[in-house]
Amino acid sequence: MSAISYYTAEGLKKLREELDYLKSVMRPKASADIAEARDKGDLSENAEYDAAKEAQGMLEMRIAKLEEVHSNARLIDETNLDISKVLVLSNVKIKNQSNGMEMNYKLVAESEADLKTGKISVTSPIGKGLLGKKVGDVAEITVPSGVLKFEILEITRDQSV
Hints:
Helices cover about 40% and strands about 25% of the residues. By secondary structure, it is α/β, with parallel strands linked by helices. A hairpin with a 5-residue loop joins strand 3 and strand 4. It is elongated and about 70 Å long.
């Protein structure tokens, strides 16, 4: 049994698009590659055929995995989330108390985390440490390099369109 994972509307859309692409574009291409390799003669000594079959197997494994993830995906209903404390989908402005540096993060599901765009997972050490905190609270977060203290400066949510 696979674990339920939570997605934003954007994250769920990306998951569906990738699954559709693999099924509608890559699967027929894999079949065509196998047919082309089969036409080249003796299958017992045909490395191109073996490679095409292996690629197809890997593709089918990826499709099966995405279908499993998709079947266990749940859309997060942002309307019922408390905006007074840090929860999944919160935009959080924090201040590192040791160096005064301010940072902005959005807490998202693990599958949507992307540090380059400021999205951190709620299962990451910082994400876990921020969950449930309110403006003015100080989160003490244990990371590999020690303990970091972050003051919660602001909590906001994206406005639904």
